[in-house]
């Protein structure tokens, strides 16, 4: 029986890291148009796509050696807790070997943008069922019907939360607002979300969908 090892999620312990040294546990070739390799490491700084949040992107490098560009990151559907890094080697003849040490580097600008959208999508006093924190389609869905007449009042409350600069914690506690577990990445306080603007409120089948964007 193969002993599958969980990947240590370094970003959950220190979300301010932008680089991390990790050990390669597997480097697999797959036939695909854009991302023809999967690299697995014992730990990762890359947040995998999930919870409505896009995955981090970036690179893994070996000093004076190969470079692997990470285009997307997913949790394994087979090995519980294992993180898969999909991408392509800069040199098609390159490959990582198990046991090699690589330096992982994320695109810090995109990480910050995704963290701002994720934090801005948390809400108080609503039964949230699912959300998308992708910049081009950010929205939250709630149980029950929210009339469009409340849009201005909701916007006012959002503005108040941003202005109060309320601190956030890993479990995600917004001081003075909401507390619940969340494994995504977040900014350190609500003000760091920046100007958060509500878009259309739509309703269907007993559900309400509130779109938003960061100005």
TrEMBL record:
One of its GO terms (molecular function) is ATP binding. Pfam families: tRNA-synt_2c, tRNA_SAD. SUPFAM superfamilies: ThrRS/AlaRS common domain, Translation proteins. InterPro entries: Ala-tRNA-synth_IIc_N, Alanyl-tRNA_Editing_Enzymes, Thr/Ala-tRNA-synth_IIc_edit, Transl_B-barrel_sf, tRNA_SAD. Residues 169-211 form the Threonyl/alanyl tRNA synthetase SAD domain. GO terms for biological process: alanyl-tRNA aminoacylation. Belongs to the class-II aminoacyl-tRNA synthetase family. Alax-L subfamily. This is Threonyl/alanyl tRNA synthetase SAD domain-containing protein. It comes from Achaetomium macrosporum.
């Amino acid at each position: 029986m193969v002993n599958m090892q969980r990947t240590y999620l370094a970003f959950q312990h220190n979300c301010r890291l932008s680089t991390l040294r990790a050990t390669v546990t597997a480097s697999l070739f797959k036939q695909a148009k854009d991302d023809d390799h999967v690299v697995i490491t014992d730990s990762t700084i890359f947040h995998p796509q999930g919870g409505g949040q896009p995955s981090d992107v970036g690179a893994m490098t070996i000093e004076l050696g190969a470079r692997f560009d990470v285009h997307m990151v997913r949790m394994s559907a087979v090995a519980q807790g294992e993180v898969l890094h999909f991408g392509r080697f800069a040199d098609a003849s390159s490959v990582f070997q198990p046991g090699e040490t690589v330096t992982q580097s994320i695109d810090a600008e995109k990480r910050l943008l995704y963290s701002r959208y994720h934090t801005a999508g948390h809400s108080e006093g609503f039964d949230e069922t699912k959300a998308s924190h992708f910049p081009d389609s950010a929205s939250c869905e709630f149980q029950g019907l929210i009339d469009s007449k409340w849009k201005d009042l909701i916007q006012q409350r959002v503005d108040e939360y941003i202005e109060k600069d309320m601190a956030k914690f890993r479990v995600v506690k917004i001081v003075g607002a909401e507390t619940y577990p969340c494994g995504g990445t977040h900014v350190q306080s609500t003000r760091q979300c920046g100007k958060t603007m509500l878009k259309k409120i739509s309703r269907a089948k007993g559900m309400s969908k509130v779109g938003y964007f960061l100005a």
